[in-house]
Amino acid sequence: MNSDDPAPKPSINSSRAMQYVRDVVAFGPRPIGSPNHKKLETYITSHLKGVPVEDDAFIAETPEGKFPVRNIIAKFPGTRDGIIVIAGHYDTNYPLRNTGYVGANDGGSSTAILLELANQLRGKKRDGYSVWLLWTDGEEAVKQWSATDSLYGTRHLAEKWQKDGTLKKIKAFLLTDMIGDADLNIEQDMNSTPWLENVVLQAATRLGYQSHFFGRSIPVEDDHLPFVHKGVPSADLIDLDYGYNNVFHHTPQDTLDKLSPQSLEIVGSVLMETVRLLDKM
Which pLDDT tens digit goes with each residue over 195-219? Predict the structure, then answer.
């Protein structure tokens, strides 16, 4: 921690965040359109009682037919005009739905960290921008990843928010994906907004976590892209080094034993510190 900034370190509860991952994984595979997915929707919304929630539910046309998709947005109002969105997907890979694939990291970790951030934000007066937590749906491809078979939820929501005027109020879109890996290495995403990535790195450095961030630069296609394409400053916090050469990604080996509460704490803390820094800008 840098002594020239007296702000306290965020108090992310890592064991509680890890328990959320366990709860989510216990539902089993959670692809769009499945009963387990529906159970997870209920689990998420049950944790948001007393919080204003926007439901963005629609039917998506996919190569495998029509599917219900539901983005869940929890809103924590601030005193300053503008919104910071923190997002992560909660669906799991559809093509692997019959393999026992549970997506502990890919789908599970992002769902859990947003639930823990809700605990951090709930019932507190925010002297800064409003913070909206967004559980995105339909991030995964139904058949094979392409511009039209992926990101169903965020493509729909970015359009909706553009039409209703919400989009121009968003100061920053912070995305989390695959952030539970015990060997945490967050990529520097070449599709993200450079100045916002700099704020994330500043936050990580102030908390002493900079060694986990931006060791390599790669372009990432993820739920931030529909917002990037509409001019919203966006940063994707993603670890695509999940096992040697990303060997666990989209395989039944994406299981709880590969994850660490410390990684969830690091990313959650950096997100909260990034919000604090953005509030001051």
Answer: 999 999 999 999 999 999 999 999 9
> Is the alpha carbon torsion for 185, 191, 192, 197 positive or negative?
positive
> Angle between the 110-121 and 35-46 helix axes, to the nearest 10 degrees?
20
Domain assignment of residue 8, yes or no: no
- Does 3 fall in a domain? no
In a domain, 1, yes or no: no
Range of the domain at 271: 14-280
Decide if 7 is inside a domain.
Answer: no
Amino acid residing at 97: R
In 3D, which of 147, 192, 153, 156 has the Cα closest to residue 174?
192
| Residue 240 CB-half CA count within 13 A | 13
Domain count, the chain: 1
Residue 210 sits in a domain whose CATH number is 3.40.630.10
Whole-model pTM over 0.90: yes
Q: How far is CA 196 from CA 82, 85, 141, 173, 200, in A?
A: 16, 13, 27, 9, 6
What is the residue type of 162? Q
Residue 136 has φ and ψ, to the nearest 5°, of -85, 150
Asked if 89 and 150 count as a contact pair (C-beta separation under 8 A), the reply is no
